[in-house]
Amino acid sequence: MNTDGTPSRAMAWLVCALIAAALYGNFYVYDSIGPVADLLQQQRGFADTQIGLLNAIYSLPNIVLILVGGVLVDRFGAARMTMITAAICFAGALLTALSPNFAGMAAGRLLFGIGAETFNIATLAAIADYFGAGTLAFAMGLGLSIGRLGSYSADMSPNWFATAYASGWQQPLLIAAAFGATSLAASLVYGLIDRRRTASAPPKPVAEKFVFRDLLHFRKAYWYLLALCVLWYSVILAFRSTFSIKYFQHVHGLDLGTAGEMNSYVFLAAVFATPAFGWLCDRVGRYAPFLAFGALLLPLALWTMTWPHANLWIGTALIGVSFSLVPAVMWPLTSRLLGPTRFGTGIGLMWVAQNAGIAGANLVAGWLNDRAGASAQNPAGYDAMMLFFGGASVIGAVCALLLWFSAGRRDQELAPTSHRPANAPA
Ligand SMILES: C[C@H](NC(=O)[C@@H](N)CCCCN)C(=O)O
């Protein structure tokens, strides 16, 4: 700790490492359903609608709760909320793994979702507490990329924990709960460090008042960004985190281990490419064209995957670039577009709509598969789901192009608005 009460560099990077470890465990739990989807169907007779619901139910409470969660983080501080929400997430992961029936598992995923999205905000706020403008984006990118490593590990788990998978659906979910426990442990250590710092630090400035009327003054570019956020995340999360492994097994004839490995490369690419793309955009000083490029790759990738004999590597590589590029640009662009005084309100609204989209996409995709009887014996039954994902991703890409066109040359329309009073017309 420095003499003026600000954290030392060593302390800041230690906190960043702990937050990254906490995100790793949290993202592992989030992505633990996809690899057991086929086992849940075979051993417990779950329909695709039920499997979709296990991930949709994560998002459903957050259609409302995420706004409350943001306010709680401001009110009680990032450290306290990180610890509380990590504990809720662990309880949810444990309940999911130990439940004897679908209702109990769904309750576990609901509990996990209630904790996890507010946990995501709290961890971003935690990094913001410890890093200044010069290193903040890089530190956030690093935290996010270690989180992606958790998603990668979940997809690789059928290979890494083959014995657990051979024993059935439950042991893999208990392993996920163990990662939830490490996330909680990292959060608690961070909380202890933060308590020592805040005891001697000057009081934090009071958070800005949350004014709903401000939303009316966000510029057109913000609404394009919001629409892209909803559509792109809905498709990428409902496909990559819920149905893609099963899709690769049933349509492309891959075994579980190979399908999980194929899916995992998307996350592995993001580990390295997300901070790299963020650094590149900062250097070039352009955001909108990169975002449009990343958004366009998603429908292209899905289209290549619909060909049963096409090389899956092509689609995987395209989704990998999209999955690295879009988040790397979207969050810095959101902060640039809104400025610091309206960032919390803006991101809260984006995540409300995003969670509604993710829940809806999981439910619709599961329902479409069940209706068409999608299975290894009937791979064409997945066509409706792919058409749905493809259509949504095309509309998302159109929004990204509109954002780019509305940004004008050199993104001048996307300049920060923080110099304006919060209620000035946009
Ligand atoms: C930073 C961003 N997170 C989100 O958008 C969350 N609202 C949803 C994340 C769900 C999976 N962990 C991201 O992960 O890119």
TrEMBL record:
Major facilitator superfamily (MFS) profile domain: residues covered: 15-408
Location relative to the cell: Lysosome membrane
Chief place where the protein resides: membrane
SUPFAM superfamilies registered for this protein in UniProt: MFS general substrate transporter
Transmembrane segments: 12-30, 51-72, 78-98, 119-146, 173-193, 222-242, 262-280, 287-306, 312-331, 343-365, 385-405
Similarity comment: family membership: Belongs to the major facilitator superfamily.
Subunit organization: Homodimer. Interacts with lysosomal protein GLMP (via lumenal domain); the interaction starts while both proteins are still in the endoplasmic reticulum and is required for stabilization of MFSD1 in lysosomes but has no direct effect on its targeting to lysosomes or transporter activity.
Function: Lysosomal dipeptide uniporter that selectively exports lysine, arginine or histidine-containing dipeptides with a net positive charge from the lysosome lumen into the cytosol. Could play a role in a specific type of protein O-glycosylation indirectly regulating macrophages migration and tissue invasion. Also essential for liver homeostasis.
Matching PANTHER family: MAJOR FACILITATOR SUPERFAMILY DOMAIN-CONTAINING PROTEIN 1 (PTHR23512)
Listed name of the protein: Lysosomal dipeptide transporter MFSD1
Lineage of origin: Bacteria, Pseudomonadati, Pseudomonadota, Betaproteobacteria, Burkholderiales
